[in-house]
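Backbones bend. To wit:
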Amino acid sequence: MIWKGEKSGKYSVKSAYKICVSEITDNSHMHVHDQWNLIWKLKVPPKIKNFLWRVCRGCFPTWAHLSSRGVSFPLDYVQCSNNYEDSIHILIECPKVVQVWREANLWDTIDKLLQQDYEIHALIFNFLQNFSTRHCALMATIMWSLWKSRNMKLWQQ
């Protein structure tokens, strides 16, 4: 007998699990073809690469994402008076965040990309594909810093 789930032809629980998951769940939204290497090749610390990967995969713990999973949370966003917190708001659209992007001289670029792609993963990949290594590392580091700042304000006042 030959198991088609493995190149070697031998059965494994891991390969059976992968086949079951691919048939049962629709994970097409998680497939961004040939672009993940743009994140992993960035000249930034691994924690920032992991952060960007989580944002792009849609497993970023914003209040909008957590509420869709049944987790309760305070209604106000910690950085401004907005009562809805998603990835775009935390990392791009919050008025305090826009000011950070302006001071980094990246707001005009990000605003143009935002008009093309309103989804955070599309915006990030578009930026990574079209700008210099230095600008990409700066963008990733600023996004991570914004997230860290938000968490420090939320958890440590």
About this structure: Residues 32-156 form one domain. The first helix runs from residue 13 to 24.
